[in-house]
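Case study 2.
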Amino acid sequence: MLLATVSFLSCCSTRYADNRPNKKHSSRAPLLVQLEEPLLFELPFFVQSDKIIHYSAFTVSYNSSTLNPEWVAYELTKEEAEGNITSRNGRNFVQDPRFKGKQPNYYDYNNTGWDKGHLAPAADMKWSVEAMDECFYFTNCCPQNRDFNGGIWNSLEKNVRSWARKYGRVYVITGPVFTNNQYETLGTDKVAIPDAFFKACVVPKGEGYSAIGFLMNNDYLGGSLNAYACTVDELESIIGLDLFCGLNDQIENEIEAVVKWGDWGFAKPKATTD
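Prediction:
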């Protein structure tokens, strides 16, 4: 594994059946909500003190100390992945005016050499003007190595859209990983620069589901995507989150323990025996 293990969060005390609501988050709901349990399929376990922000197409847990989201989670459907109502043209990252906590600003990133990296990608939001606008809030942004952001991370985001088209929907959670703070901070607001990034995906497959995790250092990376893939169980042991805990326990245990490589269009790595 690329990174040192960090401590686990508490596991879900209550599990939810896999009967996720069909509708998206309502933009009329309060921006900042504090809940004890996840309500949507793609959410991890979180506690009442976490700053959870529900947007129209994705949910953010935001950290006002690192000035990074802790995670961003969303469902992407086939129809959304094929959306063409709008584009990212003419948009730049801005502070969310409705969120009252501290946020970065344009000048923190200016001339630093670090990209303003989306966690919920703009290319996933072409189906909605509102969703596209919201994905350009700094609450959905992390400092990313430019070659990483435009390279293997972009390739992974393209694969997520292809999985949505293939399976009808994909559930995604992604976020930064901080270990030894090798890159320190940027800007006068001292935006923490992540050491790595993770992404985990679940797709419906026949009568059940299939899951995969990815862990990548925040640097130029070569090779194929499957070299950075792992089980969700392995990913959880490193990032300290209980992912997809809205699943039935038995289903969660089964799909998070194994990667079914063919489901994701990958060849099984030579070192993998599963």
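The radius of gyration is 17 Å.
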